[in-house]
Design goal:
94 residues
Length: 94
């Protein structure tokens, strides 16, 4: 994972959040990263969503971001997982 990919993804995600993107849009954003970039996309999404959570956000937005992170890490119903649902693990552990 390159820092440049993470930073540009994080910027795009921050812009979506600032514009008031809802649950469907944010889930689609994460799914698209996984579908288009595979495992690397999952890691990039996981880190970008975590980093955006460091911003001052409304509670409802934080809840949506946490739901996406749950889907990226498999901490949800298996029908809601994004990709393999283990993008919180290092490349070596996966």
């Amino acid at each position: 994972m390159t820092y440049q990919k993470l930073s540009s993804t994080e910027l795009a995600l921050s812009n979506l959040v600032a514009l008031g993107a809802g649950r469907e849009t944010l889930f689609h954003f994460a799914r698209s990263l996984v579908e288009n970039q595979g495992r690397d996309g999952g890691f990039i999404a996981f880190h970008a969503f975590n980093n955006v959570l460091d911003q001052e956000l409304p509670e409802s937005t934080e809840e949506i971001l946490m739901d996406v992170l749950d889907a990226l890490t498999g901490q949800c119903n298996s029908s809601c997982r994004i990709g393999s649902g283990d993008y919180h693990l290092s490349h070596q552990a996966a």
